[in-house]
Amino acid sequence: MRGRISIGDFIIALAVIVLLAWVLWLFIPAPRVEAPAGPAGDQLRALIVRSDEGAPDYNRDQFGQKWADEDHNGCDTRNDILARDLARPTFKPHTRDCVVLSGTLAEPYTGKVIEFQRGQDTSTLVQIDHVVALADAWRSGAWQWDTARRQAFANDPDNLLAVDGQANQDKVAASADQWLPPDRSFRCEYVTRQIAVKAKWKLTVTRAEHDAMAHALAHC
């Protein structure tokens, strides 16, 4: 009979509809996640969202001397941060309170308490993390800086935290869309600090990074 649709025609039409829906899903962008109100949200909204990855390859040497004495207080940056973040730090004699020997860390990323002891087999249990990783900063605009500015960034106390060594290794160079601290109670402070550092140094974010930051702030 004329006007009657065969099962084969119905299946073909259904397949076309499914294919069109799939194509539309691929090419229609996901809705943006808006930054919530507040100082951190305002800073996040002001960050430039970059659309491409045009940076050359990253190398740690591009950020100058590791743990330099940027503030010229006679102590290297690693020991400065250990002295700041550890409770009851002790110092090696005759180092003008520069070389930290021991202390107690209320570790922010995991929530653990770590007893730090300086030594060949123990020092790495507490590491100094760049909250905005150097490789992330490189991709976010630091590749355009001179070495002096990159070294200043690498030693900026605002971007440094004493943390659990394994957590630091797990993070590596990840941005906020790729890694957040296992201790959920610290995620708000962590993302807020990342945003502040990127604003301070005029670094950019990716769309995925922006949305992950906005999502984290919404739960603060």
SSE ordering:
HHHEEEEHHEHHH
Q: Can you list the strand order of the major beta sheet?
A: 1-2-3
Q: Helix proportion of residues, in percent?
A: 25-40%
Q: What does the average pLDDT come to? A: 90
Based on secondary structure, the structural category is alpha+beta
Largest sheet: 3 strands, antiparallel
Count of DSSP-assigned helices = 8
What's the domain count?
Answer: 1
End-to-end separation: 65 Å
Radius of gyration: 24 Å
Low-confidence stretches: 23-31
For the secondary structure, the number of strands is 5
Strand fraction: 5-15%
- Overall form: elongated
Can you walk through the features of this model?
The chain has 220 residues and is α+β, with helices and mostly antiparallel strands. The chain has one domain (34-218). The protein has helices at residues 7-27, 39-46, 77-85, 134-139, 147-154, 165-171, 187-200, 207-218; strands at residues 87-91, 100-106, 113-117, 126-130, 160-164. A three-stranded antiparallel β-sheet has the order 1-2-3. A two-stranded antiparallel sheet has the order 4-5. Helix 2 crosses helix 7 (187-200). Mean pLDDT is 90; it is low at 23-31.
Quick summary:
With 220 residues, the chain is of the alpha+beta class.
Write the layout of secondary structure elements.
Blueprint: H1 7-27, H2 39-46, H3 77-85, E1 87-91, E2 100-106, E3 113-117, E4 126-130, H4 134-139, H5 147-154, E5 160-164, H6 165-171, H7 187-200, H8 207-218
Antiparallel strand pairs: 1-2, 2-3, 4-5
Helix pairs in contact: 2-7
